[in-house]
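Annotated sample (chain length 113).
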Amino acid sequence: QVQLVESGGGLVQAGGSLRLSCSASEIIVSMRTMGWYRQAPGQQRELVAFITSGGDTTYGDSVKGRFTISRDNAKNTVYLQMNSLKPEDTAVYYCHVLGHTYWGQGTQVTVSA
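Output written by the structure step:
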């Protein structure tokens, strides 16, 4: 069973930045498409970004130009650099291995106005 552990969430003012990390318990980051999702209270979980094993990236429309997904295969870790944060980015952010049932426990990001 693959375990994913997110970290890096917190409280930040609008316009600020945070970097989320997702560490996997097994060598999977380099082999699978890894994604970040988020879920705000009362909202459905939505895709934020994903990165393929080949390094191709895709972003949700609401974060394009502000967020960057990357990975460090040696550390088996995926990152999400979030810049120019807005209050509407407030949510629990989850790491996920696309095509599998592996999810992290989530990390809270709160952006104050």
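Annotation: The chain has no helices and ten strands.
Annotation: The chain has a mean pLDDT of 95.
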